[in-house]
Amino acid sequence: MSNYTRRDLLKTLGAATVAAATPASALWTNMAHAADAKYQVTPEKGAKLRVLRWKRFVQGDEDLWNANTKKFTEKTGIEVRVDNEGWEDVRPKAAVAANVGSGPDIIVGWFDDPHQYPDKLHDLTPLANYLGAKYGGWYDICKRYGTRDNKWIALPLGIVGNLLVYRESHVKAAGFDGVPKDLDGFLKLCKGMKAKGTPAGLALGHAVGDGNDWVHWLLWAHGGKMVDEKGNVVINSPETVAALDYIRELYPTFVPGTLSWQDPHNNAAFLAGQCSMTNNGISIYYAAKNSTDPKLKEMAADIGHAHFPIGPVGKTTEFMQITQAMLFKYSKFPNAAKEYLRFMWEQEQFNPWLEASIGYVSQPLKAYEKNPVWTVDPKHTPFRDVAQGLMDNGHAYKLGAASAGVMADYILIDMMAEAASGQQTSKAAAERAQKRAERYYKI
User: Mind listing the pLDDT tens digit for each residue in 66-76?
Assistant: First the structure.
């Protein structure tokens, strides 16, 4: 383990917790290395790269990403410029770059965005196969998002784990030992917390991660879906109406303002004490734990993480934002870009980055489950396995331009918000979503 990595781990997680972690000599052992895992490209002479990625919620993520990028430049002589954009801005900028044929060489984007313009992206199959063979294989959810027609059109960076984040003492004050595992119990908990003056708050604005994640879960938990196995739009269904009826009863338990929340808003509301349960990654806990404010440090000790309840379908229906790197064909230096991606995904860089991010992004490759970040603090552990069993945006049908377009247009979030706020009846909201989605799914 390098001196830099050790210092970063000590700074990020604290010396006391590191002392209890796996011994340094064993941190990166037992990685899967296939004997035939070989990959090599020769970067172009004079190559310069530009990378666009989403803006961090955990400072260690950005710090280590930039440090690893600097290492790459020092090793190869290839200059790399990294730009960071707000979550909501990455998708439209990637779409513009694909359409005009100009922009960053690599864009780290969201969900099934690569499936909107697969012909504009480089085939990353050799690189993905190399990494998969070397590091224990890709999770199924990563394969579904990263591949199209048996080719890798994007390289998954991981899943931004999205679980219920709650104040343990406030849940107990509402009469519950933890977050219920069924929808009826969950609704009763939210009503109880509202009555105690410690309401929940879940985003119903155009939040790329937090909004999409929980409304997909809720729809699927009731058995609703956007399209069937043949690609026919079926969002206007009794199951969808049942989900909308549920959110109409749930929404009054929320803190005011959630209809306009984007991804940063629930973090701020929770840390300000305005809401006591939301859905998020590990960043809320990170911010409280590392704050110099004694009240926030006290809050950190009271924070719990839980999976979403199971609905009438009888199984987990969780949905979380996958983030993946796309290499555009307009790049003048594709080999240099591929070498940058390989370098960043190798264990010498990826493991320290995963640590510094305190698990904000859960690994896409199975071997990285062994990273001690997942066990150095028991409140990190629920995020380790989020990739297992996740459902993708295509759901019953396949991923493609239609599924990506429906999400980019926020059709599902808008439907939920319209019903929750009373702007539309449950039936009317489902009918409007049906018409909007049919513009994308033209079978």
Answer: 999 999 999 99
Superfamily of domain 48-161+320-383: Periplasmic binding protein-like II (3.40.190.10)
**Tell me: the pLDDT tens digits for 75-109?**
999 999 999 998 889 988 999 999 999 999 999 99
Sign of the alpha-carbon torsion through 279, 280, 282, 283: negative
Direct distance between the N- and C-terminal alpha carbons of the chain, in angstroms, rounded to an integer: 54
Contact 229, 397 (CB under 8 A): yes
- Tell me what pLDDT residue 88 has: 82
Under DSSP, is residue 107 helix (H, G, I), strand (E, B) or coil? strand
Residue 438's identity, in one-letter code, is E
Give the separation between CA 224 and CA 216, rounded to whole angstroms.
9
Rounded to two decimals, the pTM is 0.84
- Which residues of the chain have a pLDDT value below 50? 1-36
Give the residue among 389, 430, 327 at the shortest CA–CA distance from 159: 389
- The answer to whether the CB of 395 falls within 8 A of the CB of 227 is yes
Q: Domain spanning 163-318+409-438: which CATH class is it, in words?
A: alpha beta
- Which residues of the chain are in CATH 3.40.190.10 domains? 48-161+320-383, 163-318+409-438
d(CA 219, CA 437): 15
Given CA atoms 41, 94, 414, 361 in this order, what sign does their dihedral have?
positive
- 179-182 contact pairs (CB < 8 A, 24+): 179/277, 179/304, 179/306, 179/309, 180/309, 181/309, 181/310, 182/309, 182/310, 182/311
